Amino acid sequence: MRVVALERWAELNVARQLELRCDGGCGLGSLAGELAGTDAETRADLAAGFTRWEALLRDGLQATRDRGDLRPDADPAQLATGLLASLQGGLLLTQTTREIRHVQAAFDTALGHIHSYATPAAAARTEAASA
Q1: Which residues contact 26 (CB under 8 A, 6 or more apart)?
Q2: Fewest CB within a 10 Å sphere: which of 10, 24, 27, 64?
Q3: Is 96 helix (H, G, I), strand (E, B) or coil?
Q4: For residues 29 and 119, is the Cβ–Cβ distance under 8 A?
């Protein structure tokens, strides 16, 4: 299946955490945690940042479904929300414990869920490329 861009994005996020010795987390997530409760305008600005990020993921997943690599019952909006939530939770746990396994597990789980929607043809292409 052609979700190589998402897999590469996940690899880059993991690599960045390793580079930071798991002492980084997500800049936007950290900012949201600190400022979301300060006032409604700040919270709205932070929410807009997450919304734009989620839209990029959703649009990519929609294109993947439109290409026929994901089954019609795959919901790009829900998958994008799950992927972003997995990233944020994984980064928070990784930052807190200083263990990379949390963000790795979050990505493995989220990407595995996305892969579960692969069409038979897309899954066969992935198998052939892995062999």
Answers
A1: 87, 88, 91, 92
A2: 27
A3: helix
A4: no
What are the sequence ranges of the domains in the chain?
4-130
118: β partners: 70
Domain at 4-130, CATH from 1.20.120.610, 3.40.50.1000, 3.30.710.10, 1.10.357.10: 1.10.357.10
Tell me the residue length of the chain: 131
Mean pLDDT, contiguous 10-residue spans, the chain (131 residues): 79 90 62 61 81 93 95 97 92 90 95 94 73 66
- Is the CB of residue 70 less than 8 Å from the CB of residue 118? yes
Q: Tell me which residue has tokens 């963000």.
A: 103
Q: What is the pLDDT of residue 125?
A: 74
How far is the C-alpha of 26 from the C-alpha of 29, rounded, in Å? 5
52: DSSP letter: H
- Rounded to 5°, angle at Cα 76 from 43 and 105: 75
Contact between 55 and 62 under an 8 Å Cβ cutoff? The reply is no
